[in-house]
Amino acid sequence: MAKPDSIGQFEQLVLTAVLALRDDAYGVTIHDKVGQLARPKAVSLGAVYVTLDRLEDKGMVSSRLSDPTPERGGRAKRCYRLEALGERALEESAVTAKRIWETIAEVWGKEWARQWGKRWGKEAGL
Amino acid sequence: MRPSPPRVLEAMVGLLIPPACREHVLGDLHERYQSPRRYVADAMFTVLSVVLSRIRRTTDPQVLAMEAFAVYVSFLCAGWWAGASFPSGQRELFRLAIPTLAALVALMLRNAYADPGKRSRWRPFLDAAAGAGGAMFSQAALWNVARELVLPRQILIFGGGVSVLLVATLRAMVAAQGSGAPVSGQGGHAATSPKDLQQKSEVFLRSVRRGNMRLLLAALLVAVVLLGMMGKDTANLHSSGARIAGTVIIVLTLYVIFQVYRKGAVRAMPSETGTPAARDVYRAQLQRRREALHSVWWWYIGPMLAILMAFALQFPLAHPDEPGLWLNITPFTLLAVIWSVGAIWQFRREEQKLQKEIDTFDKR
What we know:
- The complex is a heterodimer.
- Chain A has helices spanning 9-21, 27-38, 45-57, 84-108, 110-123; strands at residues 61-65, 78-82.
- By secondary structure, chain A is mainly alpha-helical.
- Chain A has a two-stranded antiparallel ribbon with strand order 1-2.
- The mean pLDDT of chain A is 86.
- In chain B, α8 (194-232) packs antiparallel against α10 and α11 packs antiparallel against α14 (330-363).
- By secondary structure, chain B is mainly alpha-helical.
């Protein structure tokens, strides 16, 4: 089985967005979803395209052009799909994030982690 | 009714977006439209990002390094031939780097803005001409701000012309190798039925023939240009050095033509055949191409290097009393050697790719 390349934080966000959006994953929706996930940081549409191109080169997502739609001025969407390599990379990232979280919680205490989670969730609008 | 961007504005943005991603990026910008000002701001950042991304995806750093060297040495050779006083110091070498850099930017942009749906056999020449155009443009821009950095016209024209030939040849060769191997990741050898295999084989053979045609055209072009340059130098035309060089160039070009023709003659797949036989034929085609790439030094690179060296050596051999001529041909010789090393490296890479395909095919 091929070992996936390591991915950065922004790539994790984009992969998560593609995963969450399923069949409706294209430029605008991915950008919106990544914007939600990255809050309060602002995300540009260009950065999303660049990352999608890179992930496609790494074989983590694949894309196809859909049929043109009138609300887009008669232009097609480029729809993205998560590939097996992307799923594995995302899985690894999630496991690493969980480990980080558990270690912090262990050192600073469960109560702190609960409070911090609450506060951060409020700030992020979750 | 949804607001939509002004058509003129959209058309202008469309021109700036590379064709490969124009459709969906313009669609996304259209969908996000709120106001003209927001649209322009959105488009500016997006266009910049997608162009940079296209450059990253379409430009091979190793090929770019070879092109940089080819363009720089072209101007260096032009400077050397133009007069003994140029280039004489670090400042002159820096002056030569300016058009080189501009040519590279033009070549990268040309890569990014190439339409993947359109294929043209003239593309390597058009790309190389765009690179030379970039170099000229940089000099025109410098003329207004720092005239002392502008190269003499003679060097610019001669260097630009040589760089077009070298870059076009390099690109034609890289394209030839790129099309010579079946594309991985597209189910290249997953085909199992005779019909699928036959289809794969046809595509593969077509690409091999196209690649060989480019090699052939590049060899012919080099020969015609070199012989043309020799013919113009009437003072040197009847020297024994020029006669020997001319003969070597003609004989080796004919040898290259024959070899390219021979290497392209691959057994086609019979129309009515079973799966095992079709597999054998297809595998043999891949194997033959791999072997041709393995021995490319003997049938293409070596003869081409000899052609270039025959052209360069005619001058010092015709005038043994002028030792300075040996120094004058150094950049050309260096360039020819670097070109051959780069080309061999490219062919080897292609050979390895093909071997991988054969291994994958054997495992199925």
